[in-house]
Amino acid sequence: MRWRRVEEKTGAGTDVKPTLEATMAHFGVQFSPSRNIGMAQCPLHDDRTPSFSYRLDDGLWNCHSCSNGGDSFTLIAKYHEMQEQKELTFPELKQYARDNGLEEGAAPAREESYASRYGGGRRAQTKKPAGKAGGGYVPAWKRK
User: Fold this and answer.
1) Model-level pTM?
2) I need a labelling partner for 34 at 20 to 30 A (CA). Which of 21, 54, 101, 133 fits?
3) What is the CA radius of gyration of the chain?
4) Are 79 and 43 in contact (CB under 8 A)?
5) How far apart are CA 117 and CA 122, in angstroms?
């Protein structure tokens, strides 16, 4: 779900949403707020072992058991869909967050480069500014 694109079309324009930490605390997820990355029991289904992974700095979560994931708005929407059998529209999600006093924060800035989790989360090196083409190697027949 691309909530940001929906907001731009409606003209609401604010890039503020509830923090994932506040949303998880609201739904009773037992997690350590001092840790940026962790595992917890999923609030969407009856879970006995931690299968709900989260990244607080990115504001993203993923349940490895029920195959759901997303941001704080997605967590609110999925909770209402799976626990209360009620689908909420995006304006209703924003109103729910406002009514329940979920702490708002700026959406995390997305970097343009791709970070692979297999590479230890290191970012791909950015291109160097345009300059002399080639790597600087000069063949023997061109050297003087």
Assistant:
1) 0.64
2) 101
3) 22
4) yes
5) 8
